[in-house]
């Protein structure tokens, strides 16, 4: 599974950064959706196209971690352990981001220039 996750993460996260289409949240959720046919970002798709728009939604939803918890719950996800294919919240690139586990305990996240690995997740969810 790890090889499949990494291949999908590299393909999805190699796109140029675009708020609402190819950012840290949509990137991880796009990979998760490819792997599990569940899109945790579905309720937010098309609702923002800028950093300000993203931050407005995060604030309205009670902060980044609360937003991620709400999206995970609404998508029917269960608590995860960082296994390949799990999605999580990590400190990444100077803030919080959604990331995808590409190997046990190894997380990949979207950056402005592509993808990076090695983040440590503070929360994780898996497909039901």
Key features?
128 residues; alpha+beta; endopeptidase fold (from Nostoc punctiforme); six-stranded antiparallel beta sheet; 4 helices; 27% strand; globular
Report the portion of residues in β strands.
Answer: 25-35%
CATH architectural grouping: Alpha-Beta Complex
Helical amount: 25-40%
Net shape: globular
User: Which secondary-structure class do the elements indicate?
Assistant: alpha+beta
Provide the residue-averaged pLDDT: 95
Overview of the molecule:
Helix content is 36%, strand content 27%. The protein contains four helices and six strands; from the N terminus they run ααααββββββ. The chain has helices at 2-13, 24-36, 51-60, 64-74; strands at 78-79, 87-92, 95-103, 106-111, 114-119, 121-126. It has a six-stranded antiparallel beta sheet. Helix 1 (2-13) packs across helix 2 (24-36). The mean pLDDT is 95.
Question: How do you describe this structure in short?
Answer:
The chain has 128 residues and is α+β, with helices and mostly antiparallel strands. The protein is built from four helices and six strands. It has helices spanning 2-13, 24-36, 51-60, 64-74; strands spanning 78-79, 87-92, 95-103, 106-111, 114-119, 121-126.
Write the layout of secondary structure elements.
Blueprint: H1 2-13, H2 24-36, H3 51-60, H4 64-74, E1 78-79, E2 87-92, E3 95-103, E4 106-111, E5 114-119, E6 121-126
Antiparallel strand pairs: 1-6, 2-3, 2-6, 3-4, 4-5
Helix pairs in contact: 1-2
């Amino acid at each position: 599974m790890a090889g499949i996750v990494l291949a999908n993460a590299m393909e999805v996260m190699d796109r140029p950064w675009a708020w609402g289409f190819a950012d840290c949240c949509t990137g991880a959720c796009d990979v998760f959706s490819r792997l599990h046919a569940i899109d945790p970002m579905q309720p937010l798709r098309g609702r923002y196209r800028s950093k300000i728009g993203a931050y407005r939604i995060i604030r309205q939803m009670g902060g980044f971690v609360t937003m991620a918890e709400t999206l995970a719950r609404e998508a029917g996800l269960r608590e995860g352990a960082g296994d390949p294919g799990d999605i999580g919240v990590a400190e990444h690139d100077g803030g919080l981001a959604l990331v995808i586990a590409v190997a046990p305990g190894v997380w990949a996240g979207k950056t402005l220039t592509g993808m990076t690995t090695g983040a440590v997740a503070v929360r994780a969810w898996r497909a039901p």
